[in-house]
Write the structure tokens for this entry.
Amino acid sequence: MEKFTRLTAIAAALPIANVDTDKIIPSRFLKTIKRTGLGVHLFDPLRYRADGTENPDFVLNREPWRKAGILVADDNFGCGSSREHAPWSLMDFGIRCVIAPSFGDIFYNNSLKNGLLPIRLPRETCERLMADAAMGGNAKFTVDLERQAIICPNGEEIRFEFDPFRKRLLLEGLDDIGQTMAFSPAIDRFEERRLREWSWLPATTVA
Amino acid sequence: MTRAGKQQMPSPTPRTLFDKIWESHVVERLPDGTCLLYIDRHLVHEVTSPQAFEGLTLARRRVRRPDATIAVADHNIPTSDRRNGIAEAESRLQVETLEKNVVAFGVPYIPVLDDRQGIVHIIGPELGISLPGTTIVCGDSHTSTHGAVGALAFGIGTSEVEHVLATQTLLQRPAANMRIEVNGRLPPGCTAKDIILAIIGRIGTAGGTGHVIEYAGDTIRALDMAGRMTVCNMSIEAGARAGLIAPDETTFVYVAGRPYAPKGEALEHAIAYWRTLPSDPGATFERTVTIDAGKLAPMVSWGTNPEAVVPVTGVVPDPSAEPDPVRRATFERMLEYMDLKPGTKITDIPVDVVFIGSCTNSRIEDLREAARITRGRKVAAGVRALVVPGSGLIKKQAEAEGLDRVFKDAGFEWREAGCSMCLGMNPDKVPPGKRSASTSNRNFEGRQGPGARTHLLSPAMAAAAAIAGHFADVREFS
């Protein structure tokens, strides 16, 4: 997994509630067997018109937000399906951090597994960040995960809560499987006990 | 949200169904409350697994428990005759990739041409793979469906699919408990679908975020397993991690005799254990919601998320009545996308496409309901109507009961099993600007195809819309 330590970037505001994963990346783009190359399809229904040309009103089609590294969103961002293509497409576009009042649970989890930092902040704070983001190219934000702080363009600092376990994995770029493999003896013991106590549970290979 | 403190207390503490399943699967509890959770059943499909198998290959890892894993292709596959393979190149590649991976990693697989093939969330319970008290995951958010048997079942992303394949566990924080109690006699014309649409309309698309919902109450108890699956299926549409229902006699009768279920003495042991699972009296739920089933009516969604629902007797609501400016803007955008005007009677809205299928409503019980309304009637001129059974076995059963004839005589298309028009990854799509009455679970913009306008409803209501050519009150049909 890509590390997340400190990011300085401009931010794009997406003031729409309940942005579902079908809006982040529609199902017709899920027919890939790769994780990369999805950035071009990010927010397809919002970003492109029916004839395939860019919608000039959409924030990521306007300068300077074509190079946005941070997205400030509204409530329940990433609700809907479990497709990890949603964080993959954001990362592939160049977005490494999404700030919102709340997230869909699965999207939130998927982001953590990919080095995409999801930050929960109260809606009023998000609205203030959106106003700052609208200032454009000179309005750079710095997200510092170690200190759990966002430094706004005017130097103001906003602190955020973050799970300490997840923070360590992100800072060090560690993936979950490597972590879990360290528990292999415990999994072995658990499994042995279960096979004994739950002997009624058949294998999926037997029918 | 963490319940780690509570779990360390002595066992007499009353526990919920969720607490019991969770605690019996904790392999290791980390200092911050994150748990390594053991997974009993891993269901795999073609869309969210290729990158996971690729990850295993790159890291030279094996599948830890192929005998707790089962794979099937459902999202991409055409629902027309499949004997000549899949015409669309990318879909074919995904299915072929799955077929290569199951061989390379020794994972049990149900082939596309097998009668048991179908939507992963339909066939899990149907084949007895999904069992009470177990943990079930799948790289698909509608895994919550399996909660109907009294399992803890939830959707995961591809990284987690890889994690389960490699370790048979997941790193998870415990969820909070939420109880939704539905009581009262369900009025005529109302079904499990109307219950869950009404619940989402009430608590909202983020109403269950961070929670596992236990559905309880006499209305839920009275539902058959198909209805319970419909309710649990849409838990994710309320934002919940999972939805589940305590196992009872209805569950045990359903499970017994299914091919992958325990048999004989093993089944007796299992049932004895399953009887200990229901939530203890006095168990704590962080949140409780009660619904009076007696006041429900058949529901139809009007907007682009599943909380935007009204009774069929209602009208398209007016955004100017919404005080919050962000919500009002969302509301206006929904009406614009759906091409609807406030105040329009729901029954005055014409439909172009009717889709009966999906992991929400494609079981034999759903098809019987739709056929009951359809029998002896005709699909309205200009309406394209499809029935897509949830599995090959359901299709055969329906044909044995003559339901296929009822649908075909009325002008419905009768298709092979798969996810189909619920998400339009296969050729079954709603054309741009067309309006669909769909028994599926999501009415998001573009869900059934770019520009498609989706209205969610029950199978009987979908059949009524197909016949009338517009939304219609199913209570006027029998």
About this structure: The two ends of chain A are 38 Å apart (CA to CA). The domain at 6-173 of chain A is CATH 3.20.19.10 (Aconitase; domain 4).
